[in-house]
Amino acid sequence: MKDSYANCLIPFLTEHFSEIDVIDPRYYSDSIVRFTKEHAISDMLLLYNANTFFEDASVVRLGDEE
Prior knowledge:
By secondary structure, the protein is mainly alpha-helical. The protein has one domain. About 25% of the residues lie in helices and about 0% in strands. The protein is flat, with a radius of gyration of 12 Å. The protein starts with 9 loop residues before the first helix and ends in an 11-residue tail after the last helix.
C-alpha cells in the first residue's frame, strides 16, 4: 500500500523479494481485502507520507471487508 512517496523506494525492494504487489488505494477501486486473500498476502508494508496517510479518505478502505 503506497502513495506517490513510495515510488522511489520500490526499486530498492526488488532485490529482496521474489514478488511485490503494489497498490495505491487512491486509484484502486476493488476490494483490497479480497486482493490480499486472492494473492495469499501475509505481510503488508504501508509506505505513506504521514500527512497523506491521515488525510486521504481512500486509506479508510484498508479495513473494508468484501
